[in-house]
Structure formats: structure tokens, C-alpha cells
Amino acid sequence: MSGLLFGLSMFPTMSTVWLARNAGNANFLYNMTLVINIFACLLLTEWVRAGMKLRRRQRLQAFCRGVVLDTLEAMLADRQDGSGAPGVVAADAVAAAGASEATAAKTIIA
Which pTM value belongs to this model? Predict the structure, then answer.
């Protein structure tokens, strides 16, 4: 970001020196344009990389939320039906949720 700010602040200075005072040459202006474009590309790359990381994190969070909600719905349905001991159902549901989250995390990270 600082390189982009440097290029943007020096561009008018180099233009003035070259055009108004006739003291510089076109290479200074070309170099400032090159600096601005390089740092703008680097900044764009960082924004895209951060957006991809954010999207990956949101997908993982949505998947984990879905696993937890499905597990809770299954536990509540078993509890309302009266089938099985509540402690055994809860332990099985927690074990299944843990295995699903570990598999999902490996899949999304890869």
C-alpha cells in the first residue's frame, strides 16, 4: 500500500518537473507509471487472496453449523420419540458430529 501511495504522490511531481520546468525526462514519468501499476497489481492480488480466504472460512462455518443443527434435531427427535437412553443418543451424536467436522475440515483445507 505504501508503494502505491509513493507512486501516486510522486507522479504529479515528476510530471511537473518534466513538463513545466523542462528539467526531467520521460523516463521519470514512465518509472512512476510502472511503480503505480506494479503496486496496484500487488494490492489487487492481496484483496483477491483475502476474499478467497474469507469465502473458505464462511463455507466451513456454514458446514459446521449445519452439522451441529442436524445433530441437535436428531437428538430432539429421538428424545421426543422416547426411544433409547438420552445419554447414549447424545454421545453417539457428538461422536458423529466430531467425525464429520474433521472430515469436512480436511476436505475444505485441501
Answer: 0.52
